[in-house]
Amino acid sequence: MRKSSPLRLIIFMTALLLAGSWIPQRFTVTITPSLWHRIYLLDRAPSKEQMVRNAYVLFELNSRYLKGAKTQKTLKQVACAAGDMLTVKERSYYCNDTYLGQAKDYSLKGERLPHLEFEGVIPKGSLFVFGTHVDSLDSRYFGFVRKEDVIAIAYPVF
């Protein structure tokens, strides 16, 4: 068996430490069923041009519904972006006449949920975000996300 040189060990340990500090900043894992994918690669220097319909965005959400959660960071998909037409009819949401989903009246804990009431063009700098799960806490309940509040663009890995 060949003995490793101290230099090789130092290089290996340095690479391991660098990877250990790099990986947590570049990936996120969803722990709720609100999106189909679970692991995402993050771009933490997103441009506003990347924040378009169908993009995944990570942002900080201050909501009473997240009290007790380990993090306030929230990952959702952009369902309707600035310049798109958002219509709400009887708790049903449409972007450019494409059906997105319906809002619920009560949370899983039995709390009454507010609904975003809006009809018109999404304002500049705003995003309407959505989850794929029926119980997703998203823009139907907390309203628009400002592009300037987006921490990262996320790309599904798995």
Automatic annotation (TrEMBL):
Gene3D superfamilies membership? Umud Fragment, subunit A
Q: Which domain of life is it from?
A: Bacteria
Instruction: List, alphabetically, the SUPFAM superfamilies matched.
Output: LexA/Signal peptidase
Biological processes, Gene Ontology terms: signal peptide processing
Q: Which residues form the Peptidase S26 domain?
A: 23-154
Q: Which residues cross the membrane?
A: none
> Which terms does the record give in the GO molecular function aspect?
serine-type endopeptidase activity
User: Which named protein is this?
Assistant: Peptidase
